[in-house]
Design brief:
The complex is a heterodimer. Chain A is of the alpha/beta class. Chain A has 18 helices and 16 strands. Chain A has a 5-stranded parallel beta sheet, with helices on both faces. Chain A has a 5-stranded parallel beta sheet with strand order 6-14-7-8-9. In chain A, α6 runs antiparallel to α8. Chain A is globular, with a radius of gyration of 23 Å. The N and C termini of chain A lie far apart (54 Å). Chain B has 2 domains: 88 residues, Beta Barrel (Elongation Factor Tu (Ef-tu), domain 3), CATH 2.40.30.10; 158 residues, 3-Layer(aba) Sandwich (Rossmann fold), CATH 3.40.50. In chain B, α6 links the parallel β13 and β14. Chain B is globular, with a radius of gyration of 19 Å. The chains are: A alpha/beta, B alpha/beta. The interface between A and B is large, with 43 and 45 residues. The complex binds flavin-adenine dinucleotide (2 copies), iron/sulfur cluster (SF4) (2 copies) and FE2/S2 (inorganic) cluster.
Amino acid sequence: MVIKHKYEMPEQPPKERIHNFDEVPLGYDEETAVKEAERCLQCKPKPCTKGCPVGINIPEFIKCIRERRFDDAIKVIKESNSLPAVTGRVCPYENQCEGNCLLGKIGEPVAIGRLERFVADWERKKGVTVPEKPPSTGKRVAVVGSGPAGLTVASELAKKGHEVVVFEALHAPGGVLLYGIPEFRLPKEILSREIDYIKRLGVEIKCNVVVGKTISLSEIKKEFDAVFIGTGAGLPRWLNVPGENLAQVYSANEFLTRVNLMKAYLFPEYDTPIAVGNRVVTVGAGNVAMDCARTALRLGAKESFIIYRRSKDEAPARREEIAHAEEEGVKFMFLANPIRFIGDDAGNVTGMEYVQMKLGEPDESGRRRPIPIPKSNSLMQVDTVIVAIGQTPNPLLTSELKGLKLGKRGNIIVDDNQQTSVKGVFAGGDIATGAATVILAMGAGRRAAEAIDEYLRK
Amino acid sequence: MYKVIEKEILHENLVKMEIEAPLVAKSAKPGQFIILRVDEKGERIPLTIADFDRKKGTVTIIFLEVGKTTKKLGTLEVGDCIESFTGPLGEPSDIRKYGTTICVGGGVGIACLYPIARALKEKGNRVISILGARTKSLLIMEKEIGKYSDELIVVTDDGSKGRKGFVSDALKELIDKGVKVDLVMAIGPVIMMKVISDLTKPYGIKTLVSLNPIMVDGTGMCGSCRVTVNGEIKFACVDGPEFDGHGVDFDNLMLRNNRFREEEGIALKRYMEEQWQCIGMGKKHGDKA
Ligand SMILES: Cc1cc2nc3c(=O)[nH]c(=O)nc-3n(C[C@H](O)[C@H](O)[C@H](O)COP(=O)(O)OP(=O)(O)OC[C@H]3O[C@@H](n4cnc5c(N)ncnc54)[C@H](O)[C@@H]3O)c2cc1C
Ligand SMILES: Cc1cc2nc3c(=O)[nH]c(=O)nc-3n(C[C@H](O)[C@H](O)[C@H](O)COP(=O)(O)OP(=O)(O)OC[C@H]3O[C@@H](n4cnc5c(N)ncnc54)[C@H](O)[C@@H]3O)c2cc1C
Ligand code: SF4
Ligand code: SF4
Ligand code: FES
């Protein structure tokens, strides 16, 4: 008999969790995981695997869970994915592996993400063994940026015996996993274990090095046999409306960096401040916006709004994140767009003027274009604004290397092997694709590691 | 970890430190800054590179103890370490042969001005420096800057040293005297930079200012440091910190620099209370002995 629904995963109740930064979903226990694994039909053509950007052998690892061979399950996953504890939490699996699951046609798909998370957590509890170091190839690779792309390249190349040095601009590694995605969605303790593992593989991580400033890419090129650039898409986009420079108007990056990287939620025990008022508005409806709106509640906002110019159907955030935000009391204003922020004499934001929108014909992105409705302006009182309408690649480093081909949006152009227009220089992750996902960045990292290995052995 | 190699107290709350940071020293140029974090729980704060020694691999910072972070930094002694120290950040000053340049420095801004004045002089410019402070004891680096200036004018608000008045008065006098000025470089409190820019604008004298907005990462990622220049959003950490003074919205900068006034007050009060308790306990032990 087919069980049509996923087994529930326990979660912290909304009323409680908006007062803490602890993780919201609590994960499956062994029994539930095995029961959920038993729902899988073990389809021969593996449609689920086709939906996974790194091609994990999903039926195989699920079979291992069924048979309680968790050790084998993790082995199968790690053949294609080195950070399963991370992806099992943040992957948009509903559009990927689970979106392709055959069971989804008659009911809910197998909870592949939850199962992946379960095995990764099981391994973490048990203690991770580090593979033995292969003989050194004597080749040195520099990795710029320590987000999921950079970390994947580093660990894959270290496993192949190359010497890897990662350069990170901030004082700690992890990229968006560290400074962007909040603790309640991805506990930093998980990240630090993963990073610890990578260090134990022999990778050296040098923080506080801004490549392009502290050392130039050309210097690095001289010292290393190959370079990988994984600097992400860290440049915040703005609305370009009046009042955007008022105090208490944050970019999502500033807001989240203060809270996550600098731990402002523990102020004054930690030194970095954050200020949120009673009524907080977040502009945008991606994962970043959900993270901001939910963080604002946890920092004590009485009301947290999301304003988005299209409708709920077009919202780019994961469904699960929108649902979490709704449960926590985030108020959504769809089909509305701010046109001006209003401040008091001290420069603090006090209000927002916005217009109603309607949807027209689809634009180049395939989504229906939002059009302002004339004379539909309204005012609303707000005291904190967070602009979360996307990020673009940061030009800090790409502007430095001569001959590096860039796309229209400042992204680095790469071929199928993540090779850039400069010999020996590879790139991947958000810097190549524009803001995308953790798993895509890791997939690019894997491809790059293969290509770099080949390049070095030539 | 970045070691404190030397420390000198220039004035009761003005400290000069030489920090071991070879990579930063190797690439540093006048006009750039670093971002440091004193300890694990510390805030990231920017400080100008006041000097650097590539051979020794050190960077000199000069800072005024104004709040929790700078006070905590001030308690470090030679041999102690700073948790993180990143740089050089920002665009270097555009050092060229301009002709006659006037370097205007106010308060701790004088420290930021020093490497720029030196570089301008070494490029063959005629350098006139105007240094200002509230009072005599707060005036710093007069000798150092004097060494690279063809003319040095000192002003204090209370007249306790040099002439009484503001740096802008001294600049105006020079202009009125008919000195042909090719560049004014002004670094100091926001209000000083605003007054200087307002003063030079009608004369069409090119004026550069070094802005000091609140920063976090210093790499162009967060936008905390954004300033409005000629109606456009600029990030001071990557596009600056130097900008054309005639285009800067100083009023907005002043407002944005007050964003965390309340929290800064709380942090400082808590820190001082902690320090006070330590001292208090020390005394008790002393009493018993
Ligand atoms: C708030 C937020 C929530 C998200 N939620 C999800 C989610 O739920 N699921 C999902 O799949 N994706 C999510 N994403 C997107 C995902 O995090 C990114 O696509 C992914 O992190 C990209 O990885 P990356 O390695 O390319 O770059 P990043 O993670 O951006 O890392 C780049 C690193 O390079 C460093 N760097 C930059 N320039 C330099 C330089 N010049 N020198 C040295 N170092 C440098 C940066 O400091 C950073 O550490 C989210 C993003 C954000 C911001
Ligand atoms: C590019 C640049 C160069 C600077 N160079 C010097 C220098 O050479 N010497 C010097 O004494 N000071 C310099 N400053 C100012 C210095 O960064 C602040 O004095 C310091 O951050 C105060 O921190 P605090 O915790 O001690 O004080 P707080 O009590 O936290 O703050 C006091 C005031 O300092 C400013 N400030 C607070 N936090 C930050 C932050 N994270 N970033 C920037 N400003 C902040 C605010 O305007 C605040 O009102 C520079 C600032 C910038 C942006
Ligand atoms: S990595 Fe992501 S897409 Fe692939 S199986 Fe895991 S959750 Fe699904
Ligand atoms: S498609 Fe679904 S049911 Fe079929 S093997 Fe994959 S996970 Fe199992
Ligand atoms: S300090 Fe973050 S962008 Fe300038």
